[in-house]
Amino acid sequence: MASSKRDQKVVKPRSVCLSDVQHQSRAQRLIQQALSSDRLPHAYIFHGPDGVGKEMFAHSVAKLLLCESPKLGEGDSPTKDSCGTCRSCVLVDAGNHPDLHLVYRQLAASHPDSAVRGRKALDLGVDVIRHFVIDAVGLRPTVGPVKVFIIREADKITPQAQNALLKTLEEPPDTTFLILLASASDRLLATTRSRCQMVGFASLPSEFVAQRLAELVDGLDAKTAELLAILAQGSLGRAVLYAQDGFAESFDEVATMLAGLDRVSALKYSKRIVEMAKESADRYKKRDKNLSDAAARRVALGDILGAMAAWYGSYLHAAAGRPHPFESRRDGIDQETAAQSIDAISDAEFRLAQNAHAPLCIDGLMFELASV
To answer: What is the DSSP letter of 23?
Structure first.
């Protein structure tokens, strides 16, 4: 497998309109139906895996709502979209439209209260929600007739902050639209979900992710893009991070370990996996300085365990008559062995999610995989 360089340069994606967001037909249909009936809800929850287009779609909806000259498509069921050229569209594309409010954890650093600024932004607390959403909702739009709030990582809004937000979600001004983005909607309170229109987003096809990844990342060859698309499990955003971090190289190393795994080498490989996770966690923390050590380690170990499961999963694909996507092979891996190995990895992921001691958990997993 061709290796990829770390810190790959990512090409800034072009400006997109609503119709440019691909492979999210259900979300497109729901929005267009609401637009055509002039009954667009004022509060949405866009939920689904990270990196599949939720935020891009939310920005496209905001761009349409703020557009000064929306266009109508042709055909029996014409769709609405932003013009892409008016002053509002240009401001949205530039990221400085005064009526488009992007809300996220790190805004705590810009809060007027020094006590809030001094805390680590591990979640979206009530102080941030009150100042940047609830108080701002009451202000009149600056440029156009409406204003739009997009709240990232809405599943990290604390229960106290969600309760404070309920009245705004239930009775927002006619000039206000709110879009909450969540990777796990079940982490939101039922009272929050009941006041919003739920719109689900699906994982993207691997072929599409590979194609877009090759377009977005300079110097990335097609074979590595295909590998990263499979490892990212339908998430373009995750695939881009993998390309930046040289995760193809990490996968090659993990695959080599699994191909030669036995009870003698299990402990050595376990220690190396923990080291790799530490290196990856440091990169995650460098991107998000508010990320805790434990959270960064969980994400990093999740990436590696996902790669291990994908390696074993390739044998299930082969048993089903589909092409084997990875080059690294190990003799004796049959369908039953692969399935048992994936179950063992899944159990380890569950234990890690319950805050099990990571090195001991990985030790146990590697010895179990060697025994299988």
So the answer is: S
Strands (E), the chain: 43-47, 71-72, 80-81, 100-103, 147-151, 176-182, 197-200
Distance CA 84, CA 319 (A): 48
Distance of CA 55 to the CA centre of its chain: 9
Q: How far apart are CA 53 and CA 183, in angstroms?
A: 11
DSSP state of 202: P
The total of other beta-carbon atoms located within 10 Å of residue 279's CB is 11
User: Judging by beta carbons within 10 Å of its beta carbon (0-12, 13-18, 19+), is residue 147 exposed, middle or buried?
Assistant: buried
* Angstrom distance (rounded) from CA 361 to CA 363: 5
DSSP 204: P
Q: Are 122 and 128 in contact (CB under 8 A)?
A: no
Residue identified by tokens 């937000």 is 165
pLDDT tens-digit profile of 51-99? 999 999 999 999 999 999 998 876 666 789 999 899 999 999 998 999 9
How far is C-alpha 251 from the geometric centre of its chain's CA atoms? 20
Backbone angles phi, psi at 245, to 5 degrees: -90, 5
Count of beta carbons in the 10 Å neighbourhood of residue 30:
17
- What the chain holds in terms of domains, given with CATH numbers, is 24-200 (3.40.50.300), 245-371 (no CATH)
d(CA 145, CA 92): 15
Q: Enumerate the H helices of the chain as residue ranges.
A: 25-36, 54-66, 87-94, 114-117, 126-129, 135-137, 159-170, 190-194, 206-216, 222-231, 236-244, 247-259, 266-287, 293-319, 335-353, 358-371
Over residues 2-16, the pLDDT tens digits come to 444 555 666 555 567
**Which one-letter DSSP state was computed for residue 205?**
P
Closest CA to 235 of 371, 54, 369: 54
For residue 136, the one-letter residue type is: A
Specify the length of the chain in residues: 372
Closest to 26 measured CA to CA, from 56, 46, 40? 46
DSSP state of 323: -
pTM of the model: 0.85
